[in-house]
Structures
1.
Amino acid sequence: MTSPTADPNPTVRPYHPDRDTEALWAGKRAFELGLGEAGDTEKEAAYAEKLTEGYRERWLAWVRRCATDDPGCVLVAVPEREVADGPPLAGYAFLLPERLAFVWDAAVLNELWVAPRNRGTGLADELFEGVLSHAREQTLPLDRLLLDVDTENERARAFYERHGFTGWGELVARDL
């Protein structure tokens, strides 16, 4: 369902590190806190605790390097008008740059986030099509786009299944 404050026509364009940094960070923060809220109290606390100033600086520097190395790998959806209720972006998508393709032998959709006010508007589809187009331009070991999605995020899982994603292995993790 679309929020009554949704921007009806955000512009999707490549991220510009010199002008989009604060807006992207606000979106990233909302993305991370949303991931935490989708789990138990421990998961929520872990995601919230990592969002320190040091993390912010390191993440934004990494995004700058990625976007400089592979322009177009980070897309932002910029509202036509200033937003008073929530993050300034309507959404963003982050495809890892081509130079990292050998990590998974494929293109990797690192993050796709849409502000709650813009969910259900087709913006996620537009962001996804943008990164899919960019991934098709990358020289990859396998012509495949992969991502990890929280098993409890039904909305995201349905979105990716609608776009043709199927299970491909299983990601496992452990504490260091």
Note: The first helix runs from residue 17 to 37.
2.
Amino acid sequence: MRRLVVVGNGKAADAFLRHIQRYPHNLSISVFSGRSNGSRPLRGPAWYRSRGIDLRAGISITAIDRHARLVMGDDGSRTTFDRLILAIGRSQLPAAGLVARKGFVVNRSLETSDGHIYAIGDCAEIGDAGFSASLDQLARNLAARLAAEAAGADVVQRMPKYKLAVVRNPRAAVTAGVTEGALTA
């Protein structure tokens, strides 16, 4: 069984966790929710228990050892991982040698410069400036990828490129294969 650790418990982590439940997977999932900053959690502990997710409420990650694939909690805990998802918003977590600018730089599959670590949400900066997708689309694609990988599939996932096109001539758009519905959607 592969060990998946999710750091963060906001909207991005919640979207990913909702989607991973839709796929059969062989993952042991732990979620580190960190210290509450006065905000209410999106889900209660019963939600995590009913899905077999180990919620480590109130424990913040203080360090990541990428080479040992280990996260260290502020309670002294040490948890190993096969895959790590950073969904920490704009909080300050040591980059652990990951390429970072405004956020952790990721590719379209949300992989950081370390292929075992992913970032989603406000802490991620997608390196392709022309790429955009909703948080839900990104979470769904990441969940599908990690579930398939845990099931032993060779995963080569191509994320579609979403670009905004300004079309001045609707006839040219139809000729190019763009429907009017796509232009107004």
Note: The radius of gyration is 18 Å.
